[in-house]
Design a protein that fits this description.
Elements lengths: L33 H4 L2 E2 L7 H14 L1 H4 L14 H7 L3 H11 L10 H14 L13 H4 L2 E2 L24 H17 L17 H4 L14 H15 L21 H21 L4 H22 L24
Parallel strand pairs: 1-2
Helix pairs in contact: 2-6, 5-6, 8-10, 10-11, 11-12
Length: 330
């Protein structure tokens, strides 16, 4: 058995995690959704200047370090402009809920409902929507009736036989962490655990109290080698999601789906997934352990160009990572 141990890491500093606000709902809602039935829009003057001023103070304290001083985006996506409206053009209830429940991402759940509504008021002001006389309500039922932009509907399928298109539902970081990261680590786990070996039986109440393990998610349902098969297929089949038009990086930048080098790395990952599946068919722990190095290199080749941009020059630490405002760009 090889002695090396490879682990694929996507860990980031706390502030760098704040890049999800733009991408929680990239798929346009279907016809008849709350977005398409809202009776008012942000153009109707749904907040007050005084409320926006309170929201501005909260923004400077809680949001500006990641979303930028002028809401134009930095480590996290912009909170104004066409790209923002394309995602959050629906009911304001969704935006207020998102802020209250998940922001800031490194310390969520601390904002009150009223503070979240004030932040939205400031975002509307920054987006050049007119102010009115009354504050924006924090009540969910009221907010559901106010959309930032006119209602949108899902694209229709022409002729009834054409395959539908699927807009991105998440940003690139979410796809990586939701599919590619756990699938890769399931395969990396073969380096130290033989999928063909009998699973140890937990003693006493250990089975009841054991925490969930991503690398053993199918244990007891699928055989060990089957889990490796499925993880390899997940890599091969999900790699093309990196080329989905309209997908954005966690900082709001468009994923460079037309860049020849990006396409090359995507094809490399898909081919590596197929190679991992082929290796898994040998049911040989050492063969699959060998393929993990290829998986790691396939990921790192892309990361070095598009994720782990390095600072040059004679600084104290020339290998320090830049913040993620530069990600998805060379």
């Amino acid at each position: 058995m090889p002695s090396r141990l490879i682990r694929f890491s996507l860990s980031l500093p706390a502030c760098a995690l704040a890049g999800s606000l733009l991408v929680a709902a990239q798929t346009p809602p279907p016809a008849g959704s709350a977005q398409s039935t809202a009776s008012r829009t942000a153009k109707d003057g749904v907040y007050s200047d005084a409320q926006a001023l309170r929201g501005q103070a909260a923004y400077k304290n809680k949001c500006a370090s990641c979303h930028g001083a002028t809401l134009g985006g930095a480590n996290a996506p912009p909170l104004a402009g066409d790209a923002f409206i394309a995602v959050w053009g629906g009911p304001l209830s969704e935006l207020v809920d998102k802020i209250q429940n998940t922001m800031p991402l490194d310390d969520p759940g601390k904002l009150t409902r009223q503070q979240s509504a004030e932040l939205v008021a400031y975002m509307l002001q920054a987006g050049k929507f007119p102010a009115g006389r009354a504050d924006l309500s924090a009540d969910a039922a009221v907010l559901k009736q106010i959309a930032i932009a006119p209602g949108q509907t899902a694209p229709a399928v022409a002729g009834g036989s054409q395959a539908p298109s699927f807009p991105p539902a998440g940003n690139l970081n979410q796809v990586m962490r939701g599919i590619l990261f756990p699938s890769s680590n399931i395969i990396f786990n073969v380096q130290t655990n033989d999928p063909g070996a009998p699973a140890p039986k937990p003693a006493g109440n250990q089975a009841k109290d054991a925490s969930f393990s991503m690398t053993a998610w199918g244990a007891g349902i699928y055989k060990g080698w089957e889990i490796i098969d499925y993880a390899a297929i997940a890599l091969a089949e999900s790699a093309p999601l990196m080329l989905t038009p309209g997908r954005r990086c966690e900082n709001g930048r468009p994923v460079p789906v037309q860049d020849p080098e990006w396409i090359k790395y995507t094809l490399e990952l898909a081919e590596t997934g197929r190679a991992a599946y082929k290796a898994s068919q040998t049911r040989n722990q050492e063969v699959v352990s060998d393929i993990t190095e290829r998986i790691a290199n396939s990921c790192l080749n892309c990361h070095r160009v598009y994720r782990d941009n390095r600072r040059g020059g004679g600084g104290a630490n020339p290998l320090e990572l830049t913040n993620q405002s530069a990600r998805c760009s060379k």
